[in-house]
Design goal:
By secondary structure, this protein is α+β, with helices and mostly antiparallel strands. It is about 50% helix and about 15% strand. The N and C termini lie far apart (about 50 Å).
Length: about 400
């Protein structure tokens, strides 16, 4: 075994793609990640490199200029990128979710307009569900789109947009009461609107403002922002799929594959933490020998490696289930929950192995220690994942009394 988290059953193309991505991560991301992260600097050169590799179009069909690869291939690439710097995987993830939603639910005109440019990375995607007064309670969304002739007028405030500043296309979930009378279930009166904008901050188009970046504990480099719509007018043909009232289902479909992505990020960060821990344990000496020879440290390494392997296996299973065309919300929820929790634990154990040096910003593990908590809440908290898992289990194991 050369390293942990190997994936059986990959074809030659998949192995070649992953080898290329891993080489890029080792040469172009890891050497600069900590420095850029400490400066909270957007990784422009890294993103340009990913564009050249074709990763922005990895799952976009070949007919639109993409590589037409599977969710599994994409998830394994994300795992490698997150191993280098989790923020870079976030830049790719939000773009990927919007491209996936367009591919699955967009009108032909919307696909033709956006997907070829998204495959090249010329159009970069972000998506938005959350608002300042809500988190996982999507039914409480108050942002609203009202039809006026051939346009919709949007008003509301959205929160926690990854790529909010650098994106040029944002998929926004808002209420749309057109054709949905009062009393309609909340999830049946929501619509996904495709909003084109200029990159940057401030008023990026009439009626649309992207305030400055939110200052975060970790997950730096990538811009996380609010989005404010004040009588924002967009053409009616920018309703995703051309029909109102389907936004909740479209977004949940995107989030479902996004949860596989978050699981992959957890696997990648955990792998890097293990690599740092096992390397440091062989260099650091106490009581006349490397600390790796102390049984207590060997126990930690054994537990860390087992968690890395288990999380990877569940992530791969969830991706393959989705690729097969089957429902995978149970598997995606389990993978996201386990991978994020194990990531936190593996990072903390690597931090402990480093001792006092783990608290120093000179060591990479300090950055990972601040990044891991985001995975516990991104794409649905651990508690939400357990709710999804519990409900699905009750469906599968319904008591026949």
């Amino acid at each position: 075994m050369t390293r942990l988290a190997q994936t059986a059953g990959l074809n030659d193309i998949q192995r070649e793609i992953l080898s290329t991505v891993r080489d890029f991560v080792d040469k172009e991301i890891i050497p600069v990640a900590t420095q850029l992260e400490h400066r909270d600097e957007y990784p422009t050169e890294i993103v340009e490199g990913l564009k050249e590799l074709g990763l922005f179009g990895l799952m976009i069909p070949e007919e639109y200029g993409g590589l037409g690869e599977s969710l599994l291939t994409y998830a394994l690439c994300v795992e490698e990128i997150a191993r280098g710097w989790m923020s870079v995987s976030g830049i790719i993830n939000t773009h990927f979710i919007v491209a996936y939603m367009l591919k699955q639910h967009g009108t032909q005109e919307q696909k033709d307009s956006f997907l070829p440019r998204m495959a090249l990375g010329e159009v970069r995607g972000a998506f938005s569900m959350s608002e300042p007064a809500l988190g996982s309670d999507v039914s409480a969304i108050t942002s609203k789109g009202v039809r006026e002739g051939d346009e919709y007028v949007l008003n509301g405030q959205k929160m926690w947009l990854t790529n909010g500043g650098t994106s040029t296309l944002v998929a926004v979930l808002a209420r749309s009461d057109e054709g949905h009378p009062e009393g309609t279930a909340p999830h049946k009166s929501m619509t996904t609107f495709l909003i084109e904008k200029e990159p940057g901050f401030g008023e990026v188009r009439p009626g649309l403002t992207i305030p400055g970046k939110i200052d975060k504990m970790g997950y730096k480099g990538v811009d996380t922002t609010e989005l404010i719509m004040d009588d924002l007018r967009i053409p009616a043909n920018r309703v995703l799929g051309g029909t109102t009232g389907r936004g909740f289902y479209q977004m949940m479909d995107g989030v479902e594959v996004g949860r596989v992505n978050v699981a992959a990020r957890g696997c990648g960060v955990a792998q890097r933490a293990f690599e740092l821990g096992v390397s440091y344990a062989q260099q650091r000496h106490t009581f006349g020998k490397p600390i790796a020879q102390h049984q207590a440290i060997q126990f930690k390494l054994a537990e860390m490696a087992t968690k890395v392997e288990a999380a990877h296996a569940m992530m791969v299973n969830a991706a393959r289930k989705k690729d097969s065309g089957e429902r995978n919300d149970l598997e995606a929820g389990m993978a996201k929950y386990l991978a994020s929790e194990y990531c936190k634990e593996v990072v903390e154990d690597a931090f402990r192995i480093h001792g006092g040096y783990g608290f120093s910003k000179e060591y990479e593990i300090e950055r990972l220690y601040r990044e891991a908590p985001m995975l516990l809440i991104g794409e649905g908290t651990a508690e939400i994942q357990k709710m999804i898992i519990g409900r699905r289990l009750l469906e599968e194991y319904r008591f026949q009394g």
